[in-house]
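Each record in this resource describes a single protein on a pair of labelled lines. With that in mind, the following record should read easily:

===
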Amino acid sequence: MTYDVAIIGGGPSGLMAAIAAAEQGARTILIEKGKKLGKKLEISGGGRCNVTSRLPKDEIIKHIPGNGRFLYSAFSVFDNEDIITFFEELGVKLKEEDHGRMFPVSNSAKDVVHALLNKLSELNVEVKLNTAVQDINYGRDEHTILLPNNQTLTTKSIVIAVGGKAVPHTGSNGDGYPWAEKAGHTITDLYPTEVPLLSKQTFISDRTLQGLALRDVALTVKDQHHKPLVTHRMDMLFTHFGVSGPAVLRCSQYVVKLLRAGQKQVSLSIDALPDQNPEQLYQQLIELIDQAPKKAIKNVLKGLVPERYLLFLFSQNQFDQDLNAANISREKLRKFADDLKSFELLIHGSLPIDKAFVTGGGVSIKEVFPTTLASKLMERLFFCGEILDIHGYTGGYNITAALVTGRLAGQNAAWTSL
């Protein structure tokens, strides 16, 4: 049997591509090696599924630091507002939360997945589950997909939507890269992004701060010349191996790139009180001490930051926590204030790509048309989602990129085949 469009991969981009192709009247098949569709969608946003963001388009592109500008053309055809309309028309009501993040009103990712599956069914998309594609043979007028047990199927167009190498338990294990290379495509270096970071510092290996969350800190990545590269203001978490949490995940790709470029370690600076400048903070500390000079320093400064972090910084600065506040030298107080504003964390690595939330690298965007997601090297071959060398921060940005590229890839694959 010959199909107009075959989509390989049943994640967010593959589901959207299948719907878009079938809406154009193309005879469409969706092939997924796992036993269910939309696995990654179901676990995204802590099981609530952050489908997109309501930020302005330019802001969304900024939140996709890995080649986000490539998406400007695609956004001119189908953008974040179109995603919102699309889901609302499928019966999934959405609500806006902080930073423009859009979630289903029901707080259930399953509702998002079910709506997409119902649409596939309504459009008569054929779905093959538990079917791992073995290989693709490209032809001039049609392509042949090799399936298990020596089965084959032919199709006029192919959309490869199999994801990257991150979150492998959802089925993303990098099996699409060889098919892209077979068509002549370049796979740029693959690396983990949105990934927890490792530190060998003694207080990490001693687990002094393990489990401690710092809220609303400003975390800055510095290069080898100690020049700030990027700052993210969010929460962070100390772990038994290093650090994690939203601020760390956002900074991680910059750290990983510096390490890959040959740096032995990368400096992260933690500003625990980003609303005050260093001098204001120092004067505040003096004021607090002057108000209660005979109290123990730990009681005078209680509540400034979480107690475990406060006592940790005391030990770093050789403060006796029970010492009278008046007995702390101004020099030591200044150094303590500096640590509150810029405590240095040294990072030597990250967790591996299979523990990352997002894959950096992939099919080179230079070899893909931005308006259609079609290959520049092979007729009737399209790419969408995380297999492309495009990556964003967590917070709905990667799903937005997947849905937008999926929409265009599916639509254009259909138009090419009909």
Summary: The chain has a mean pLDDT of 95. The longest strand covers residues 228-238. The two ends are 16 Å apart (CA to CA).
